[in-house]
Queue: 2 jobs
Job 1
Amino acid sequence: AQKITQTQPGMFVQEKEAVTLDCTYDTSDPSYGLFWYKQPSSGEMIFLIYQGSYDQQNATEGRYSLNFQKARKSANLVISASQLGDSAMYFCAMRGRYSGGYQKVTFGTGTKLQVIP
Amino acid sequence: DGGITQSPKYLFRKEGQNVTLSCEQNLNHDAMYWYRQDPGQGLRLIYYSQIVNDFQKGDIAEGYSVSREKKESFPLTVTSAQKNPTAFYLCASSIVQGSYEQYFGPGTRLTVT
């Protein structure tokens, strides 16, 4: 069984500062993928960044980077230079094997980030 | 523009009625998914389909049904057997290789009274 844990229900960050959102995972599969999604108040899920379990380097996408520590089973999201528009819910998710060989994505419970001017 | 459409955005129904939520994609993705999101919680998988005319139950399939007659469409029916149907429903699609990155629709907020 695969599991995603986000222990920070809510966080505040000052505008232009960097912030780290925590995510730990558990799986027995050697092959898996890790995602971060942003969900603004409108409700739509927006893909931010992806890290494969065999990727050697940490993924980066603009102001987003994923701090992947495989031995510790953590996949923290780092947002640099926070902007007011970054205020949203952030979900960590993991892709892994499901029943019948299908791939399934499991989501964490989310972290609500609020950027303060 | 390629994407996923869900309609309507808000839906109100009386208890005991079945209701169907639509999901259409023009991304040419093979896989489609339905998730349920309750306030303050993450997404839970209801059903998914990786090919036309085939679909699999997710973690919370009881009280729901789906069909996949066309690659582009994956409607979800919330039946009267679903005990707590009021929730936010999200549809997604993906390719079936590589990262399996999922693209999401805007969601449908269903309220049953």
Job 2
Amino acid sequence: EVQLLESGGGLVQPGGSLRLSCAASGFTLSNYAMSWVRQAPGKGLEWVSTISGSGGTTSYADSVKGRFTISRDSSKNTLYLRMNSLRGEDTAVYYCAKGGISRFDLWGQGTLVTVSS
Amino acid sequence: EIVLTQSPGTLSLSPGERATLSCRASQSVSSNYLAWYQQRPGQAPRLLIYGASGRATGIPDRFSGSGSGTDFTLTISRLEPEDFAVYYCQQYGSSPTFGQGTKLEIK
């Protein structure tokens, strides 16, 4: 079965760091652009970051540029999002999604990140 | 950045009725790179429509998309109980952006 499974969310203090993981199954993650999209509680969807299929190109929303880093491990078929200098406004459910400069045709179930003291 | 504005914010209809959701872009969406997603409570979004009018795999034919340039529409021909959800449009011609969503609720 083709699916994405996120993990790594939790409660973190402002200024702290967290690494999210997204394990892919049923397809080879490195053959596709992959992205992170987040959704603050009760709010809409916001694109966060994309890594190209080759891994050579990454892009970020202005709101996270310089603080978040997207990467992947092909041997583990896993996508990551390293989040540093976290702020209250980063509180959201984080989804990984298959796609980048294209539609997002497969989504994980999401992992909740709460930034609070 | 392309800003997408969806209307109405909330749409109240009954099962069996026709729903028409609008998405307007602040500038032309290149190559009609416009998608629609459905999000049910507590669930991840699901791709419905891509390329403005292409139906994603497994999506019933009561869902259809149309439009070009800056004006796009999602139509649900006959509402089923499971269709009551929030719908988002998204453009992916440049840095992806989403509309703010339309909540389709039971009247």
